[in-house]
Amino acid sequence: MARLADYFVLVAFGPHPRGSGEGQGQILQRFPEKDWEDNPFPQGIELFCQPSGWQLCPERNPPTFFVAVLTDINSERHYCACLTFWEPVEPTQEGACARDAAARDEEADEGGLGALSPPAPGPPDQLFAPKTLVLVSRLDHVEVFRNSLGLIYTIHVEGLNVGLENVVGNLLTCLIPLAGGSQRTISLGAGDRQVIQTPLTDSLPISRCSVALLFRQLGITNVLSLFCAALTEHKVLFLSRSYQRLSDACRGLLALLFPLRYSFTYVPILPAQLLEVLSTPTPFIIGVNAAFQAEAQELLDVIVADLDGGTVTVPECVHIPPLPEPLQSQTHSILSMVLDPELELADLAFPPPTMSISSLKMQDKELRAVFLRLFAQLLQGYRWCLHMVRIHPEPVIRFHKAAFLGQRGLVEDDFLMKVLEGMAFAGFVSERGVPYRPTDLFDELVAHEVARMRADENHPQRVLRHVKELAEQLYKNENPYPAVAMHKVQRPGEASHLRRAPRPFPRLDEGVVQWIVDQAAAKMQGAPPAVKAEKRTTVPSGPPMTAIVERSGGLHGNSARRLEVVRNCISYVFEGKMLEAKKLLPAVLRALKGRAARRCLAQELHLHVQQNRAVLDHQQFDFVVRMMNCCLQDCTSLDEHGIAAALLPLVTAFCRKLSPGVTQFAYSCVQEHVVWSTPQFWEAMFYGDVQTHIRALYLEPAEDRDPFSVCGGSLGWGMGGPGSRSPVPLRQVGEAPPQGDERSALDVASEQRRLWPTLSREKQQELVQKEESTVFSQAIHYANRMSYLLLPLDSSKSRLLRERAGLGELESASNSLVTNSMAGSVAESYDTESGFEDAEACDVAGAVVRFINRFVDKVCTESGVTSDHLKGLHVMVPDIVQMHIETLEAVHRESKRLPPIQKPKLLRPRLLPGEECVLDGLRVYLLPDGREEGAGGPGGGPALLPAEGAVFLTTYRVIFTGMPTDPLVGEQVVVRSFPVAALTKEKRISVQTPVDQLLQDGLQLRSCTFQLLKMAFDEEVGSDSAELFRKQLHKLRYPPDIRGTFALTLGSAHTPGRPPRATKDKGPSFRTLSRNLVKNAKKTIGRQYVTRKKYNPPSWEHRGQPSPEDQEDEISVSEELEPSTLTPSSALKPSDRMTMSSLVERACCRDYQRLGLGTLSSSLSRAKSEPFRISPVNRMYAICRSYPGLLIVPQSIQDNALQRVSRCYRQNRFPVVCWRSGRSKAVLLRSGGLHGKGVVGLFKAQNAPSPGQSQADSSSLEQEKYLQAVVSSMPRYADASGRNTLSGFSSAHMGSHGKWGSVRASGRSGGLSTDVGSRLAGVGPPQANGAPPDPGFLRPQRAALYIIGDKAQLKGVRPDPLQQWELVPIEVFEARQVKASFKKLLKACVPGCPATEPGPASFLRSLEDSEWLIQIHKLLQVSVLVVELLDSGSSVLVSLEDGWDITTQVVSLVQLLSDPFYRTLEGFRLLVEKEWLSFGHRFSHRGAHTLAGQSSGFTPVFLQFLDCVHQIHLQFPMEFEFSPFYLKFLGYHHVSRRFRTFLLDSDYERIELGLLYEEKGERRAPQACRSVWEYVERLSKRTPVFYNYMYAPEDAEVLRPYSNVSNLKVWDFYTEETLAEGPPYDWELAQGPPEPPEEERPDGGAPQSRRRVVWPCYDSRPRAQPDAISRLLEEMQRLETELGRPPERWKDAWDRVKAAQRLEGRPDGRGTPSSLLVSSVPHHRRSLGVYLQEGPVGSTLSLSLDSDQSSGSTASSSRQAARRSTSTLYSQFQTAESENRSYEGTLYKKGAFMKPWKARWFVLDKTKHQLRYYDHRVDTECKGVIDLAEVEAVAPGAPTMGAPKTVDEKAFFDVKTTRRVYNFCAQDVPSAQQWVDQIQSCLSDA
Fold this sequence. Notes:
Blueprint: E1 2-3, E2 7-14, E3 24-31, H1 45-49, E4 64-71, E5 77-88, H2 91-96, H3 98-105, E6 128-137, H4 142-158, H5 164-173, E7 175-176, E8 183-186, E9 194-197, H6 210-218, H7 220-231, E10 235-240, H8 243-257, E11 265-267, E12 284-289, H9 293-297, E13 302-306, E14 311-313, H10 327-339, H11 342-345, H12 360-378, E15 386-390, E16 396-399, H13 401-408, H14 414-421, H15 423-432, E17 436-437, H16 441-448, H17 450-456, H18 460-478, H19 510-526, E18 537-538, H20 559-575, H21 578-591, H22 595-607, E19 614-616, H23 618-633, H24 643-651, E20 654-659, E21 662-665, H25 679-698, H26 701-704, H27 707-710, H28 745-755, H29 761-790, H30 841-862, H31 867-897, E22 917-926, E23 947-954, E24 957-964, E25 974-979, E26 983-992, E27 999-1007, E28 1011-1017, H32 1023-1037, H33 1046-1049, H34 1070-1088, H35 1134-1145, H36 1147-1155, E29 1172-1175, E30 1191-1194, H37 1199-1206, E31 1216-1220, E32 1227-1231, H38 1239-1244, H39 1255-1272, H40 1299-1303, H41 1316-1320, E33 1345-1350, E34 1365-1370, H42 1375-1389, H43 1400-1410, H44 1412-1431, E35 1435-1439, H45 1446-1458, ...
Parallel strand pairs: 10-12, 10-13, 11-12, 19-20, 32-35, 33-34, 33-35
Antiparallel strand pairs: 1-7, 2-3, 2-6, 4-5, 5-6, 8-9, 13-14, 15-16, 17-18, 20-21, 22-23, 22-28, 23-24, 24-25, 26-27, 27-28, 29-30, 31-32, 36-37, 36-42, 37-38, 38-39, 40-41, 41-42
């Protein structure tokens, strides 16, 4: 029972003591006058009666009523019900306040005299003063207070005949029950009756309608944000003009917070005088009159809710965390259903006629029910995270916040985190955590209704039903008796306040009131105290918690499989199967990212701990520590999943013996984690363990004495409320206990609390003592544990860790054996006072001692340990730490003796023969470089990069080998390399290493073979090593002399850069010869420009002696020799003849002879009918150094004229013929560009030459003659007038289509173009599809010779109509543009850093910026134009730049397009040798091969040509004998400097260095191929990698490719890479042994499946999935080997198949489908194969087999020639028939000692008297010879070890020679007999 009212107070207006404008309240009377003992009188009531201040008023206001709330020092709330009415001011009072009143009403009374005169009745300036009746109570019965005060006021106003003293006395003595739902009727003795209903439980708040009103005023979103703000401890301020509204709003907000209690400042009505309270730093909920809104706006961190305006203003600096989703949105939608039920029906076509709308009171309860459900969902399962620290004398309970958040999956959630850290929740835990207490609605809800709430989530109607049920209960709690008896209370009449009151409110008689109070008190003393019988029970725990949001298990979907892997790995470790464990470790470390796997690991490790200890060997220890570290590295400092908690007992259990008496525990290797230095973690662990032991204390001894829990090493997660028991430790807090589990700690505590009152005093003391000593012993245990994990192994280092959260000044040192990366970290002294760093062990010790002491202080005070015990602990802690440091010193000393942890072994790269390592491996990380595939890009696949390994520098390459750091990729080796010579850019970078995330120096190397090595050096690589690497790399990349390159140093003994010692030659070798030749040439060239005197050559007789001019010259070439003098004849000196013969051997000559461009006959009478001749004028390289020795010139031009012609051209490169069309006999010429003089000058100077003709003019005339001779040499033009030139045609003449238009250009627009030059320069209308321009202009009347020249060079030239040649000016790009474009192309294909926007767009954009494809387009366009001109019978001279870059590209492409021979392997080789090597493309200069060329940089002119060929190959796949791989191979090796072929800038330089003519004897030496062609040839014998199976050429086919950029493809040479083996172009390296398809597992498991994963950027796809034909050929070879037959050459097999195919097609005249297919192809641009090529190549077999049946082509004279040339290509594969073979066949031969039997092909040669043997039948190289002269006998033999099993014994025979005995075995007995007979007959013949 409690008093309804504690005090009744009468407060009236009084003047302000300092005479300020306002009055102040004065307490006139208070009853009772003495304070109650249990409840002192609250101070400051006067302020709260008139919150806006005490002021007089000019008129009578109606009485007001509101309830203010005061909170006392014990945070008890006092409700002050205030009824205020106004009375006229009494004269004395008015006098005192005259000035104020006058000032306020602006009526100035002089000197205040008016105050003395008696007031007239109701004068106009009558003032009224407020007077307030106040009722102070601790109960919140607003309506009762309103009625009671109203009754007192009514008695006074209406003058009822009732004693006010009695009424007040009765009011003060009225007692009512607090709760329990009783109903009590009271009367104050004035004929009144009131019924008071008490709520059923006093723990539920009473809200009446306040919540509903709050929602009406502010709306859902605003209330929700206020709710969150109050829960997360923000400041909330309500504004309203109504005081009652303010208190209602505050009451409503508090009701919503249930079951949490608001524990901060709570002032629903704040008086004006106390407004500065709003600046308090603590959170609050305050109401203020809206009149003071301006003051509120100045506050920066207060959330202001304006009740009258319905707004909530949140300042910018305040962030209110919202409820976690999906709760926020669910709550919002339920609230809208409750508040606005019509919303659901608003869209219905037929809404129900009536809606049952709840009453305001009911709606209020429904809204509260929504929030009650919300809290039940938020806090569901909270009891599972309570720690019962003490049970007696009072329960001490702690909440395990981290575990709760971890289980709910809300660790990141700001809202819940703040709520759990708040004061309200702390109160909630201490109040509701108690296990034995009365329960209420919330306890039931959170324990039993959670499942229902989850089930209802998606069914709004069911949710609504639940809300209504809860609302019913809440309503019932407030109104237990719905049929309330009517109140009967008198009220004053209407407008009674306006009637003049008879008198002021009387002074009451204190005595009477006091007497009534005393009477009641006496009566109470006699009565027995009313004890409220509380029904206490064990609070239900409810189901264990679940995550609020079930996160998708996408990442760890197959968790069962992962757990299996973890279990297997651990069992392997403990069974000692280290190899198996090692294989699984990467998978385990990956799996440990998942929570389940980490818990599984802890559980599995627990199983291997016996009796608190598990001694491991070093390897096991290493594995266990690695796995523990991996688990811990993902733990946050909170350890919300209990992983660190589970491992804590294990780190003190696993150990290894370092030496006798020294044991190292796992904890010394896992200190590197933030969780160990977090006090909250240790507290949670400590409380969890204490709970376990306290629980064990009260269980029956039988249940409890588990060995582990007795030792005090509680395992694991023993923090769980109900779940946590010691024997089976590993269960996470919050998980349900296993079935049949004993009672939980909370159950035990509940039982003990129930029994407590019944126990005797001694028993109670004993229990308290036992509990206290349990806590104390745990504190000692934890002091030890903490010192284990906080003291570093090497305490002398004092490596103090960075300050961590919550540590204050702890600098817990740490180290880790697993990574030795910390070794270098800096010691930082925490001792700021001593101004120097004092790195003594005591530093660490001191910090750890302080940390442990703080921990001990906190937990012991909270757990009620006595102060004596606490002092004892403080004394012990330093000793514990010191002891531990001493133990660690020994451990540290011994652990240093262990061998260091091995980094992965460096993988040595495979080297080529002759390739040597310059710098051994430097450890580096290879980082991703922007190509997405390697890093597991859009195509998926593993992240091969970053990889960890080493970079090697050899004489030939830069090689990285290593393994991916991503453990999932496992043991794949990553190789990336490029030739040193291909390096284009090197830059230093600073990057993070992928493993330790340290910032390291790195290097980025870019190569023109489209490789990029982006490397970070390992920390063990010093900066000097890195610098040495750079220097060596630079030295190798740019050798001072070309002799230093790999191709030239390879196989030679001398060091690079030093010329070899000259050996004395017996005869003049080629080398000396070529040296002399060059010497002379140099002199001659030097002399050319000096001597201009006429020189008469000596007669032939004198040629033998040195010439008079140069005594030391052996050969002298003069400027102008008569034609006869240079004709080769028998009179040439021997050395001359050798030079000539070698020149004749060169590619050019072979090709000239093939084209019929002249022969070098020895007879002087050359057929004059031939228009061209081969001139040896340049054989000494005197006229032009960059031209070959033999040149094709018109027959009519004499050699001495050539010298003069050459002066008109740049670099002396005068026009020479390089190709002639077999059909139209038109010729293709090439030259350098013109000098200023020359043709151009000739055209410009129209006037006749002046008589004094200069040298230049004579040259020009020579030049003109020369061109005329070229024109004349063409049969069709020899007598043509040549007047009609190309540009002379108007477009009218160009109507008809040429051959191209009719055959090929069906469907093209026949746009007519005006001028070739302008069109090529991009002026004329372009053709659709990039086709060359319409050749309609090719008419009989056109120029005989077109000169294609540079537009800039031909400016201002007026063509002369009489000339028979015409200039075609075109715009070409220069070499520097090619260089720039290539740089951009490199960046596009190998970006170097990840793209900002992923996807293909950025690549395509940068590709377009590079303009590479535009240059390819231009080249193809010009080439096709030239092809057209040649095809139509005009000759063309290509005369661009210096004649060695673009000219070479165009000329080569023209020949490739026009002549099918150049599309064969042999022909392409000839083309490159002739046009690129002999005609002096500057490979060394463009490739920047030496130091001199470093500044000029790399210009890939040849690569651009290869790209063009590749584009043509794509469009005509059946026209080329070589495969696309061949082009890539050349593209790679022309920059690699592996072969000598592409070194130097001209034949002249090659001769000078002695490279061009290797001596025959030298070439036989078994050494690496020096020429790329030789290498290709050798490789072609072994493998068809360079051969194109789709090769089925059409005869005399001229190709005209499309050249539009849209028709071009990016060459895959630029983009593909093979990380498994590096670039595939060094065949010896690339063809590593392929993995065996089935391998036996070492542990005897089943063989693996035959399937292989092929990764796009890792494996070489052609090797992993060869095309159908290659696969069949491989299969044939394998079968041959199995059958023991010598393998046949692939080419022979292929040719046989083709021949058989042709024969099949012959008999029926219709031809096979394949022949039909091919014959129809020409009409449809034979690009069909483009698609076939991409797919598997099975279908192309038949397609390309019969090239003879192509009916679409016409036979022509060149058809047979082309056939012939292709057939001769493989002549090298024919067996050498010239040898005498008397008898041949296969025999098995036993090798020398310890060697096996092998099948060989034996040839018996009677002529040479030899028995020779070969590898197989078609081999040309003999493997060995047995000289028959040495044979002593031939006898039958016997089988020996390893002989073929299937052969009859009689098939064996031996041949005995003077040196050794040869064992042979034939395939059967007859053939053996035959062999013996044949050998015998040979011997007898001899």
